[in-house]
Design brief:
five-stranded parallel beta sheet; alpha/beta; about 20% helix
């Protein structure tokens, strides 16, 4: 009984807080679920989320001066951390915490494209683009961009393999995306060669 009351209380808090959080975002699509009662969000005015996204409990989303864009149908495991900025560490005569002036390279946009699965306890750092259809292994620290339909893992992250062959991607996208949004075969093949 007590557990059910706690869950009901958390649900109500999340519904109310989510309404206000979504209003502060650059864009928030349909069917977006947040858990503000158990998560930390900073810089909502730099956050965009597409349709059908659920950000789970214990998320830490830090949008500094650079934006974070999350595409459509993105799945997150528990406790993701996403950070679009960093502290300056190059100022002589100041403690790091006192160096509040930032350089352009201290804040870089993070983009998570459509149809991405981010595993549990993943950290995504500034300047990263996660390609459409990718899978990020649990516990991974993503510090560099990854191509579409890749499976990445490790600390730091690296491409482990690809979900589909190029022809399978073409067929997959034929079913799911309108022509103008489909990835081109020659671009996929060119990218693939970089990781073979």
């Amino acid at each position: 009984m007590l557990i059910n009351l706690f869950r009901l209380s958390e649900y109500i808090k999340d519904k109310i807080a989510s309404y206000f959080y979504k209003k502060k975002m650059i864009f928030c699509g349909r069917n977006v679920r947040l858990k503000p009662s158990t998560s930390v969000y900073f810089g909502l005015e730099n956050l965009s989320i597409g349709n059908d996204v659920s950000i789970p409990r214990f998320a830490h989303i830090f949008c500094t001066e650079a934006p974070l864009t999350i595409g459509n149908k993105v799945v997150f495991g528990p406790a993701p951390i996403i950070v679009t900025g960093n502290h300056r560490i190059d100022v002589v005569g100041k403690f790091i915490v006192d160096s509040i002036e930032k350089l352009p390279e201290n804040d870089k946009e993070v983009i998570i494209e459509d149809d991405v699965w981010v595993g549990a306890n993943v950290t995504i750092l500034m300047g990263v683009i996660i390609g459409r259809g990718s899978v990020i292994a649990a516990g991974c620290v993503v510090n560099k961009s990854c191509p579409p339909y890749s499976i990445i893992g490790g600390i730091p992250s690296k491409v482990l393999k690809f979900r589909f062959t190029v022809n399978e991607i073409i067929n997959h996208e034929l079913i799911l995306y309108p022509m103008e949004k489909r990835l081109k075969k020659d671009e996929l093949e060119k990218t693939r060669r970089l990781y073979e």
